[in-house]
Amino acid sequence: MKKTAKNIVLCMQPVPQTIVSCRDKDGNNNALVVGFTANISLDPAMVMVGIVPTRYSHHMVKESGCFVINLPKKSFKKEYDYLGCKSGRDGDKFAALDLKWEDATYINAPILTDCPVSIECSIVDSITPGTHELFIGKVEAVHVDEEYLDDKGNILWDKIDLM
Fold this sequence. Notes:
- The protein has helices spanning 56-64, 77-85, 93-97; strands at 18-23, 29-34, 36-42, 45-51, 66-71, 101-103, 110-112, 117-127, 133-144.
- By secondary structure, it is mostly beta strands.
């Protein structure tokens, strides 16, 4: 027999472990752990990230109109934990971690090159239904480490040791 859960705050599990990277209007990079991400459309390919408006990166994403979703491997846990508990208000997280990155191809944001999958997105809409502003991003490009692609360009998800 099923019972009604009392704590419904995070009723969907598992949630993807993602890092959103972004850049402000002055060219400063930042990255934060985001627990609310999802695919929302196949054609055109679109995704959603939810960011609390009080987070330091929120204004960067909102002003720039773009973001990158980076999917980390388990070996990136130390960096992931740091990005999830430190704020860019308190210092340059990229410098503190000596993060490897490169400019995205289609948008003005950094790609974390130690993550095997990075998804460039341009914002097409946003809504704030509750605690998080949900940014809907059109997928501009998906970058994948070559070893995780088959000969047809499909991602071999089962080969990646994602967090």
